[in-house]
Amino acid sequence: MDNEIKRYIPRKVIFDFSNISFMDSAGIGMVLGRYKLAKMLDGNLEIKNVNKAMKKIFDMSGVSRIINISEEEGNERVV
User: Fold this and answer.
1) In total, how many domains does the chain have?
2) CB 65 within 8 Å of CB 47
3) Is residue 23 part of a domain?
4) Phi, psi values for residue 33, rounded to 5°
5) Per residue in 3-41, pLDDT tens?
6) Strands across the sheet with 68-70, in order?
7) What's the predicted TM-score (pTM) here?
8) CA nearest neighbour of 58 among 33, 27, 37
9) The domain containing residue 31 runs over which residues?
């Protein structure tokens, strides 16, 4: 993932959580690491399609305070 972000330097990295039903601290760390990388390259990271359990985890961990979390699907290009 890091290689693709560094290769294409996208303005926005989007994580689609529509098929994710479980996440632990390692997953939160992965998301935060990609957020920092995107910011370092002058981009942004967004999370879409989270279920209620994932939203609660993002809220409790503080991730939702720094990363935009959306429930609607987008039409962005997937690379």
Assistant:
1) 1
2) no
3) yes
4) -65, -40
5) 999 999 999 999 999 999 899 999 999 999 999 999 999
6) 12-16, 44-48, 68-70
7) 0.84
8) 27
9) 2-70
Strand pairing category for 44-48 and 12-16: parallel
Decide if 59 is inside a domain.
yes
Output the domain CATH number for residue 29.
Answer: 3.30.750.24
Matching residue, tokens 């939160």: 28
* Residue 17 identity (one-letter amino acid): F
Category of 16 on φ-ψ map: left (φ > 0), alpha (ψ -120 to 50) or beta: beta
Enumerate long-range contacts of 23-32, CB under 8 Å, 24 or more apart.
23/54, 23/57, 28/57, 28/61, 28/63, 31/63, 31/67, 32/63
Q: Can you spell out the DSSP letters for the chain?
A: -HHHHHHH--SEEEEE-TT-----HHHHHHHHHHHHHHHHTT-EEEEES--HHHHHHHHHHTHHHHSEEESS---PPP-
